[in-house]
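Notebook entry, structure prediction.
Reason for the run: the old model in the group folder had no record of what sequence produced it. Starting over properly, with the input documented here first.
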Amino acid sequence: MAMTKAEAAKLTNDMLLRGVIETVVKESQLLQLLPFMQVTGTAVSYNREATMPAAQFYDVGDTWAEATPTFTPITAALKIMGGDADVDNFLQATYADPNDLEAEVIASRAKSVAHLYSESFVTGNATTNPKMFDGLVRAIPAAQTVSPGANGGALTLDLMDATVDLIKPGRPDVLMMSKRSRRKLSALRRASGNLLETDVNDFGQRALFYDGIPIVVDDFVPDTEAKGTGTNLSSIYALRFGQGVGLMGLEHGGIQIEEIGELETKDATRHRIKWYAGLALFSELGVARLEGIAA
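New structure, fully documented this time:
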């Protein structure tokens, strides 16, 4: 069963765990929207459609030809994310509210876990670091990529529309970009006499929309990419979420908090925040990238 982290937080009776999940969601607009699939084992294997079976016209009495689709087997592995959070026993004993101190320390570590997942979601590279999963930069194929030129170039509304049109079937669930790209897009819309639409999203937050598609601003979308001789470039991603149509997060057991206990080498108590998580791209037509956007 797939659900977002925000929905998962509502189902836990552990206040500390709920607080950690809420911190993770708060730190990432992406994790508010991305559905997660529970995985049994260390990986999930699935077949991605490669070619459709051919259809053709027939006359009466013709011999019908059999055709079958072809599939590409894909395996997406879970990766181990997390870190330890140490609470100093002296501060814990003298702090006005010990529960608040413990929660603050653990929430700080949870924030770093959220940042790690968000960063890996975009730029993760399992070739250079086998401990992580591949992100969008490596997962999106060339056929689903749009560019203003061999060395990058200026953002245009035509390029935006071409990127949106690569998503099939339907339209993207979100457009993810950096703050710089959002400013560029806002300037383009103002120049054309149209502003980006503003509305309230499903979480009650004010949000921007491009032709009805929510815009997600993510600080982990870099403005330092290179293409040809172009430097300091950025990308905009059109994304669909869901099994069979696009992207889904993977996890086993959700975010976990383990109390390690008293440390031998210092006067502190340790908690471990861990998350067995990954990313699966079920359909390459559910993602698209507009790369090479100049400053």
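Summary: DSSP finds eight helices and 16 strands in the chain.
The old model has been moved to the deprecated folder.
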